[in-house]
Amino acid sequence: MAGPARETGSVLAMVPAAVLVMLLLASLCLDAGATFxxxxxxxxxxxxxxxxxxxxxxxxxxxxxxxxxxxxIDPVAARAVALARAEPLxxxxxxxxxxxxxxxxxxxxxDLVLQASVPLPIGAASGLGARRASPVTVSCQATLRRx
Length: 147
Description:
Blueprint: H1 15-56, H2 60-64, H3 75-93, E1 98-101, E2 109-119, E3 133-143
Antiparallel strand pairs: 1-2, 2-3
Helix pairs in contact: 1-3
Protein backbone atom coordinates (compact mmCIF):
# COMPACT_ATOMS: atom_id res chain seq x y z
CA MET A 1 0.00 0.00 0.00
CA ALA A 2 2.57 2.52 -1.00
CA GLY A 3 1.33 6.00 -1.85
CA PRO A 4 2.33 8.04 -4.83
CA ALA A 5 6.05 8.43 -5.39
CA ARG A 6 5.96 12.19 -4.80
CA GLU A 7 4.95 11.75 -1.09
CA THR A 8 7.88 9.49 -0.26
CA GLY A 9 9.99 10.87 2.64
CA SER A 10 7.55 13.61 3.69
CA VAL A 11 7.62 12.38 7.30
CA LEU A 12 11.40 12.59 7.34
CA ALA A 13 11.24 16.38 7.52
CA MET A 14 8.93 16.32 10.57
CA VAL A 15 10.96 13.87 12.69
CA PRO A 16 13.72 16.34 13.72
CA ALA A 17 11.09 18.91 14.73
CA ALA A 18 9.19 16.30 16.74
CA VAL A 19 12.39 15.17 18.48
CA LEU A 20 13.21 18.79 19.37
CA VAL A 21 9.73 19.36 20.79
CA MET A 22 9.96 16.15 22.84
CA LEU A 23 13.36 17.18 24.23
CA LEU A 24 12.02 20.61 25.22
CA LEU A 25 8.99 19.07 26.94
CA ALA A 26 11.20 16.55 28.75
CA SER A 27 13.51 19.32 29.98
CA LEU A 28 10.53 21.34 31.24
CA CYS A 29 9.25 18.26 33.09
CA LEU A 30 12.64 17.63 34.70
CA ASP A 31 13.02 21.25 35.82
CA ALA A 32 9.45 21.37 37.19
CA GLY A 33 9.98 18.07 38.99
CA ALA A 34 13.23 19.31 40.53
CA THR A 35 11.50 22.50 41.69
CA PHE A 36 8.60 20.54 43.21
CA UNK A 37 11.00 18.15 44.97
CA UNK A 38 12.95 21.10 46.38
CA UNK A 39 9.72 22.71 47.56
CA UNK A 40 8.72 19.51 49.38
CA UNK A 41 12.18 19.18 50.95
CA UNK A 42 12.05 22.81 52.06
CA UNK A 43 8.53 22.36 53.49
CA UNK A 44 9.64 19.29 55.45
CA UNK A 45 12.68 21.18 56.70
CA UNK A 46 10.52 24.15 57.67
CA UNK A 47 8.09 22.02 59.66
CA UNK A 48 10.82 20.16 61.53
CA UNK A 49 12.83 23.35 62.10
CA UNK A 50 9.78 25.19 63.45
CA UNK A 51 8.99 22.29 65.76
CA UNK A 52 12.59 22.01 66.98
CA UNK A 53 12.97 25.78 67.27
CA UNK A 54 9.79 26.11 69.30
CA UNK A 55 10.84 23.27 71.57
CA UNK A 56 14.48 24.26 72.02
CA UNK A 57 13.87 28.00 72.18
CA UNK A 58 11.27 27.75 74.92
CA UNK A 59 12.42 30.02 77.68
CA UNK A 60 13.25 28.36 80.99
CA UNK A 61 11.06 30.77 82.93
CA UNK A 62 8.03 29.76 80.87
CA UNK A 63 8.81 26.08 81.16
CA UNK A 64 9.30 25.92 84.92
CA UNK A 65 6.93 28.61 86.16
CA UNK A 66 3.76 26.53 86.25
CA UNK A 67 0.57 26.32 84.30
CA UNK A 68 -0.47 29.94 84.73
CA UNK A 69 2.57 31.49 83.01
CA UNK A 70 2.28 32.13 79.26
CA UNK A 71 4.54 30.14 76.98
CA UNK A 72 7.11 32.28 75.20
CA ILE A 73 9.70 31.49 72.55
CA ASP A 74 13.10 33.16 72.30
CA PRO A 75 13.23 34.45 68.68
CA VAL A 76 17.04 34.54 68.52
CA ALA A 77 17.35 30.92 69.60
CA ALA A 78 14.56 29.89 67.21
CA ARG A 79 16.33 31.50 64.25
CA ALA A 80 19.64 29.88 65.22
CA VAL A 81 18.01 26.43 65.35
CA ALA A 82 16.31 26.95 61.97
CA LEU A 83 19.59 28.10 60.38
CA ALA A 84 21.39 25.06 61.74
CA ARG A 85 18.71 22.75 60.34
CA ALA A 86 18.88 24.48 56.92
CA GLU A 87 22.67 24.17 56.58
CA PRO A 88 22.72 20.68 54.93
CA LEU A 89 20.33 21.82 52.19
CA UNK A 90 22.35 24.99 51.66
CA UNK A 91 25.49 22.94 51.16
CA UNK A 92 23.82 20.45 48.83
CA UNK A 93 22.23 23.13 46.62
CA UNK A 94 25.28 25.40 46.74
CA UNK A 95 23.03 28.32 47.64
CA UNK A 96 22.05 29.71 51.02
CA UNK A 97 18.62 28.98 52.47
CA UNK A 98 17.22 32.24 53.87
CA UNK A 99 15.42 31.96 57.20
CA UNK A 100 12.96 34.58 58.40
CA UNK A 101 11.10 34.24 61.65
CA UNK A 102 8.37 36.46 62.93
CA UNK A 103 8.37 37.79 66.42
CA UNK A 104 6.78 34.94 68.37
CA UNK A 105 3.20 35.76 69.16
CA UNK A 106 1.21 35.34 72.30
CA UNK A 107 0.53 31.77 73.26
CA UNK A 108 3.89 30.50 72.05
CA UNK A 109 3.33 30.73 68.28
CA UNK A 110 6.35 30.84 65.94
CA ASP A 111 6.12 31.56 62.20
CA LEU A 112 9.03 30.55 59.97
CA VAL A 113 9.57 31.41 56.31
CA LEU A 114 12.31 29.65 54.33
CA GLN A 115 13.44 30.88 50.93
CA ALA A 116 15.91 29.27 48.58
CA SER A 117 17.05 29.49 45.00
CA VAL A 118 17.09 25.90 43.76
CA PRO A 119 19.41 24.93 40.90
CA LEU A 120 17.63 23.42 37.91
CA PRO A 121 19.13 20.29 36.31
CA ILE A 122 18.39 21.23 32.68
CA GLY A 123 18.15 25.01 32.97
CA ALA A 124 21.59 25.17 34.55
CA ALA A 125 23.14 23.01 31.83
CA SER A 126 21.69 24.85 28.85
CA GLY A 127 23.43 27.95 27.63
CA LEU A 128 20.33 29.33 25.94
CA GLY A 129 19.67 32.04 28.50
CA ALA A 130 17.32 29.78 30.42
CA ARG A 131 16.73 30.15 34.12
CA ARG A 132 19.51 28.54 36.08
CA ALA A 133 17.63 28.45 39.38
CA SER A 134 14.06 28.52 40.58
CA PRO A 135 12.99 30.53 43.65
CA VAL A 136 11.13 28.50 46.28
CA THR A 137 9.42 29.92 49.38
CA VAL A 138 7.63 27.97 52.11
CA SER A 139 6.17 29.01 55.44
CA CYS A 140 5.14 27.09 58.51
CA GLN A 141 4.01 27.66 62.05
CA ALA A 142 4.63 25.96 65.38
CA THR A 143 2.46 26.52 68.43
CA LEU A 144 3.38 25.54 71.97
CA ARG A 145 0.64 24.05 74.13
CA ARG A 146 0.56 22.75 77.66
CA UNK A 147 -0.85 19.30 78.25
